[in-house]
Design goal:
Elements lengths: L3 E6 L2 E4 L1 E4 L7 E7 L13 E2 L5 E5 L9 E5 L5 E6 L13 E2 L5 E5 L9 E5 L5 E6 L13 E2 L5 E5 L9 E5 L5 E6 L6 E3 L4 E2 L4 E8 L8 E6 L4 E6 L13 E2 L4 E6 L9 E6 L4 E6 L13 E3 L2 E6 L9 E5 L5 E6 L13 E2 L5 E5 L9 E6 L1 E4 L1 E6 L2 E6 L7 E5 L9 E2 L10 E5 L7 E6 L1
Antiparallel strand pairs: 1-2, 1-39, 3-33, 4-32, 5-6, 6-7, 7-8, 9-10, 10-11, 11-12, 13-14, 14-15, 15-16, 17-19, 18-19, 19-20, 20-21, 22-23, 23-24, 24-25, 26-27, 27-28, 28-29, 30-31, 31-32, 34-35, 35-38, 36-37, 36-39
Length: 446
């Protein structure tokens, strides 16, 4: 969903609105940033867009100590490093960030902290960092996934190693850093959780482990309740995939969708679906030409799912693809090193309706990139005077939008639906042109 402000004071209006749409053969790629080392290097994680509209992310290395960074970047590619990790405050973040309900950013590092086994940190949007948790093996080791948060403000996550058996843990933590280990993997029920925990909307989390399982140690899908109750839903066997390393996508049809790095018909990875009861179906096997080793999860746009592969494509440097629920795949982009190489993270559907992502390598300095895929189709807003009135009108491809107004743009903006408006399908709205009136701002909201 994307909304952009429509504004006018008296009889002057400037308006631009975009409608999200699926990528087409004419989609546009834009390289926003090539990392230089001093500002970060090797972004394993994808971006998040905070409530202020700015993107935030992490890099595994680079920065003043070459131990990783947290950065912010605008849609124009202006990047600002906010934190350089030093060891004491963490080392080498692989996971992305979460903006908590308190407005702060929360994240993890794979190493560093008092035991050098990883940490949880809190960061305000100005870059002030607070270390919350230092992992010590008994309570987990080396978290590699982004955190999740429930409505009560509690953070949930996983560690790749550590716990009672050394195969990883599931935990909860308060935003003040009080950590409780809820579950320890034992290999049979899974090993090395690597995907962010995803909710089905009922209070249950679902996730994946890269290894372990009931028969062959090729990974699992599990269900997890906040009280620690755990259910192993499915084990991969190679034929139906192997090593699911990313988060799941939950769709409103009650089915999760995900990827495996290996396995399938060509041992190049798969796209699969799984129900909340554990019934699994392989939708697609990658073959190299259309990508291989998908290490990222999927996102939803326009009814189709979008993702990346780490290898494969024209140059074997990775791809961006879309796939539908029937398993039909379209390769949208093959990386060529100049525009990036080896995307590891999931894409972000931003407020402007476009897709943003990172590559682990490639770009001008070979240290990774931030990129954008333009997916939005313009919706024209026409403005004309008619006597003492101003008429706003819009095109038929604005189906599903609502006209809203506000009297100022001071945050938080108080938008309200314009009453008695026509259906926003080739519609129009007549505004009384009172030159002495205060400014009024309008937008179309999806």
């Amino acid at each position: 969903m994307f909304k952009n402000c429509l504004s006018f004071a008296s009889n002057f209006i400037v308006a631009t609105v975009f409608l999200t749409a699926s990528l087409s053969r004419g989609q546009t790629f834009e390289l926003l940033k090539s990392f230089q080392g001093s500002d970060g290097a090797q972004p394993y994680a994808g971006l998040i867009q905070a409530s202020n509209g700015v993107f935030y992310g992490t890099t595994f290395s680079g920065g003043t100590s070459n131990l990783g960074t947290v950065f912010q970047i605008t849609t124009s590619g202006a990047l600002t490093p906010l934190v350089s990790f030093t060891g004491t405050n963490g080392v080498n973040p692989i996971a992305g960030l979460l903006q908590g309900s308190d407005g702060n950013l929360y994240g993890t590092t794979t190493s560093g902290g008092s035991s050098n086994l990883g940490s949880i940190f809190r960061l305000n949007t100005n870059g002030a960092l607070t270390s919350l948790v230092a992992f010590n093996n008994a309570n987990g080791e080396s978290p590699v996934t982004a955190l999740s948060q429930t409505t009560d403000g509690v953070l949930y996550g996983s560690t790749y190693f550590g716990g009672a058996s050394g195969f990883g843990t599931l935990f909860k933590a308060t935003t003040n850093g009080v950590l409780t280990t809820l579950f320890s993997f034992n290999s049979t029920n899974g090993s090395n959780p690597s995907g962010e925990l995803k909710s089905d909307g009922t209070g249950a989390f679902y996730g994946t482990t890269v290894h372990g399982g009931s028969s062959l140690p090729r990974g699992t899908v599990f269900k997890f309740l906040t009280n620690g109750a755990f259910t192993s839903l499915s084990s991969f066997n190679g034929t139906n995939g192997s090593e699911p390393g990313a988060e799941l996508l939950f769709r409103t049809n009650g089915v999760f969708y995900g990827t495996t790095r290996l396995g399938g018909a060509s041992n190049a990875g798969t796209v699969f679906q799984i129900t909340t009861n554990g019934a699994m179906t392989t939708l697609l096997s990658f073959n190299g030409a259309n990508g291989r080793y998908p290490s990222s999860g999927l996102i939803l746009l326009g009814g189709e799912m979008y993702g990346t592969t780490y290898f494969g494509g024209t140059n074997d440097l990775g791809t961006v693809f879309k796939v539908n629920t029937s398993g039909t795949l379209t390769t949208l982009l093959s990386f060529n090193n100049t525009n990036g190489a080896h995307p590891y993270a999931h894409l972000l559907l931003a407020n402007d309706g476009n897709l943003y992502g990172t590559t682990l390598e490639g770009g001008t300095n070979g240290l990774g990139t931030v990129f954008r895929l333009i997916t939005s189709v313009p919706v024209s807003l026409n403005v004309k005077s008619s006597g003492s009135n101003i008429i706003l009108s819009w095109n038929t491809n604005a189906t599903g939008f609502t006209l809203q107004s506000a009297t100022n743009l001071v945050f938080p903006i108080n938008w309200s639906n314009v009453t008695n408006q026509p259906a926003v399908v080739g519609g129009q709205f007549v505004v009384t042109n009172n030159a002495s009136a205060s400014a009024v701002f309008y937008r179309l909201k999806k």
